[in-house]
Design a protein that fits this description.
ADYC domain-containing protein, Jelly Rolls, mainly beta, ADYC, signal
Length: 479
């Protein structure tokens, strides 16, 4: 026990704390290149870092993004689907055409006429795919339509004339058994089409419901994801014009991990984004300036103090070199909890404290970039298993049990010279024989909660006495 306690910082063992000088926090520290070298003898160890976001950008808004569609920037709202940004762009009818006007005397009673149509709806599909659009009276596809409707399909969000610009296909009910038209066409490059319909005889009563066998019809929005988001512009909470632009997208299961072996995130549910600040200069500045220029979207927002907040207004873009992204890559992905934040979300938050050695729980890092640690957890099921006996590299021993506020209990500091005056743990009190009299693990200690020393020598003690679910080994490093 004494050996463990001598590894605690002197700041925890004495009353005078002024001798412990805290390092700069992320807001003031200059960004430095992250080291990602792994350990071939201990592939389960990870290199942690000092940065939280690894970018000054703290949040991206869900609302009023701009996406590239059909050669123009369109307003869209964003959402996170697991580890992927998804944009929903509202559809609308652009312009008009003579076929939407009322018919005069002598108008043709077929789909070629230039009047008597209405906009029936709009659909979305995969560009280049074959789309079937079929009519019915609203139930099964073979139920009869009223008024023997005619149908015309136009490219994009604009109505069109028969065989004119934007025209895709048309049909009447002459060759069907249920008096309903049916068409097949190739989905246009925009992935959007507009359907016009009307009665065979202009002015007659009619009824028809269209159904698509590919894509979605009717649709009120187009969803863009993956590489379709290249060129999208994202807003920050400060307001004003869009300040960030997605310049590239890659699937995380096809991108090599920056430490160890394997891919960045192999589940198939995560995308990485290259983002640049929108600028009039020929070379806009990248969002991520450390390591590789890729960011992962993460639910929730983090303050400069490292506190996590739920948000319906915005989400986090964590750059690869920051611990928000690192902890996500290690397996603590908040979307694993589902719609409601739960143990994995708390583990991710706890991991960000652990990875930065945020002993004070105030957003200040007491470590150095590239320092190896060996994390694991006690989740059910576990995400990172504990190290097998004898598997850890020489020099790595139990450091701490962690929670969302920082260390719940501590065995030693990661770096001897980075002592923390603000560690929110109680210092040990020694008797004349050098024994600790206020150990929280002692059921007979006369010191109550808030006065006993939060000391732990292993994960079992951290879990049993202090409720930790995230733990780590580290070396006792010296400069």
């Amino acid at each position: 026990m004494k050996l463990r306690l001598r590894l605690l910082p002197s700041c925890l063992a004495i009353t005078l704390l002024s001798a412990c000088a805290p390092p700069l926090d992320e807001a003031a520290a200059a960004l430095t290149q992250q080291s990602f070298r792994g350990d071939e003898d201990d592939p389960d160890s990870h290199s942690q870092g000092t940065q939280l976001h690894a970018t000054p950008v703290r949040a991206v808004l869900y609302a009023e993004a701009l996406v590239q569609h059909d050669g123009a920037l369109r307003v869209a709202n964003l959402a996170l689907n697991r580890g992927e940004i998804v944009a929903a762009m509202p559809l609308s009818v652009h312009g008009t055409t003579p076929s939407l006007a009322r018919c005069g005397p002598g108008a043709a009673e077929d789909e070629t006429r230039g009047c008597g149509f209405t906009v029936n709806g709009q659909g979305v599909c995969s560009p280049g795919s074959l789309v079937s659009l079929e009519g019915s009276s609203g139930g099964a596809l073979r139920e009869r339509c009223m008024g023997k409707p005619v149908l015309r399909v136009c490219e994009g969000e604009a109505p069109c004339e028969h065989q004119a610009r934007g025209y895709l296909a048309s049909a009447n009910s002459d060759v069907t058994l249920n008096d309903c038209p049916s068409v097949r066409f190739t989905c246009p490059a925009s992935g959007v089409y507009t359907a016009l319909a009307g009665p065979r005889t202009p002015g007659a009563a009619w009824q028809m419901q269209l159904t698509s066998r590919a894509g979605a019809y009717p649709a009120t929005r187009k969803v863009l994801r993956g590489e379709d988001l290249i060129g999208a512009r994202l807003r920050q909470p400060s307001g004003g014009p869009p300040l960030l632009e997605i310049t590239d997208v890659t699937h995380a299961n096809a991108f090599p991990a920056p430490e160890g072996s394997g891919m960045w995130e192999p589940s198939g549910h995560t995308f990485l984004y290259q983002v640049h600040h929108v600028s009039s200069s020929p070379s806009p500045a990248p969002l991520c300036t450390l390591g590789v220029n890729w960011a992962v979207p993460v639910k929730g927002l983090f303050t400069e103090r490292g506190d996590r907040q739920e948000s319906t207004r915005g989400f986090t873009l964590g750059c690869d070199a920051g611990v928000i992204a690192k902890c996500y890559r290690w397996g603590y992905q908040p979307w694993l909890d589902g719609a409601t934040s739960g143990p994995v979300t708390r583990a991710h938050w706890s991991c960000t404290r652990m990875a930065r050695a945020d002993y004070c729980g105030q957003g200040t890092s007491f470590t150095q970039d590239g320092t190896r640690i060996r994390p694991w957890d006690a989740l059910t099921p576990e995400i990172i298993p504990p190290p097998a006996p004898g598997s850890s590299s020489d020099g790595l021993s139990f450091e701490a049990g962690w929670n969302t506020a920082g260390p719940a209990c501590l065995s030693h500091l990661r770096w001897k010279h980075l002592t923390a005056s603000c560690v929110p743990l109680n210092p040990p009190i020694y008797d004349e024989q050098g024994n600790i009299v206020n150990d929280c693990r002692d059921p007979n200690t006369p010191y109550g909660p808030g006065k006993c020393a939060e000391i732990c020598d292993n994960a079992e003690e951290a879990a049993q006495h202090y409720g930790s679910r995230v733990f780590n080994n580290s070396a006792i490093n010296v400069p």
